[in-house]
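Appendix C. Worked example: Flippase
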Amino acid sequence: MKQAVVNIFWLLFDKLLRLSVGLFITMWLARHLGPSQFGELNFVTAFVAIFGVFATLGLKGIVVRDLVNRPSDRDYIMGSAFSLKIIGAILTYLCLIIFIFLFLPNENETKLFVAIVGISILFKTSEIVNFYFEAKVLSKHVVWVENGAFAISSSVKLILLWLQAPLIAFLIAISIEALLIGIALLLLYQRKVSTIFSWKISKKHMSSLLAQSWPLIISSAAWIIYTRIDQIMLGKMLDQQAVGFYSAAVKLTELANILPMIITFSLVPLITPLREKNRALYHRKFQLTYDCAVGLMIAGAILTMFIGSFVVNTLYGSAYAATTPVLVIHVWTCVFIAMATVSGKYLINEGLQKITMQRHVFGVCLNIPLNYLVIPLYGIEGAACASLISLAVSNYFFDALSKNTRICFIQKSKALVLMGFIETVWKRKI
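Step 2, the predicted output written as structure tokens:
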């Protein structure tokens, strides 16, 4: 547990540093570009994010689990996963280029923007190194490397802002940051662990990884689609200014989502070995993880309802006043994203990746029609409501339908009403 606390500290330090600098840059960038161009920026990044998820191949949770359970197979696991990610990244980028020429035939500038940011997909293959250090609960090494690259990238963005550079310059900076982090991660592994040339490619391991990960590929794609598709639909059904207002709110809720992610990714590698040793303790530890993650998000959402207008006006200025009602609605999605983060790890441990896929696909099938119905009627507030409803149904109520996930539904319900926390305190008193 001490190791988990140290790991959480390093991840928290990393995220807080990035948040403070990133928030300042985002605020300045939003003011510099204005709602319309800020909307264009987020339309492009959402487009790339939807394609980029296919390049990940859903390997993260599986690779981390395998490295925890089979450390002696490290080189085969790392080499096979890295090879798959390279192949996936190249194919994904080619598909992205083909798609933008079909989907955006008359928008030459937007096509150029998407192609530039899409290059970052190729550089993210080296995040496999991140998986290794997460499995070993040694995130401090990655923190220093990524923060170094982030510092360089942030400095470049600040210079561009000072020079009042055009939008395309900031899009190029996104790909440059991905390149710097990619190179730095490979050098980190080379220095702290072993040469990357010791990695071995095994068809058996590659087949095994793909066989286990394909449901996660689909579920990850579904997840990113229904957390990004609203921005693309707003851009096509309304205009880029609407995307700008909406994205300003989403940026703030995305920052909040980092907290449950840190808690989950640090605790689950330590909880996982308990599955075979002490099943009851294993479930209690997962309940504690739910309590922490969901409780934090509920507290933050309630607070945002009171200070949302002040936050938006302070960070973005009066030009983004339309963002406030979106933020007050959208911040509640953080509660259900926290649930999804924790239960996603549980389902991987239980070998139930297909349920994650079903859950996310169901969410997409609900979210897209909802957006089509409510965006023409209620605009950006309607899109926020559609996201909230689809996340709540697919990541909470959906779990009640299957006996395999009913324990997730019960634990999430306890976390929603703080029952897990109350039970823990009560038992300690007894």
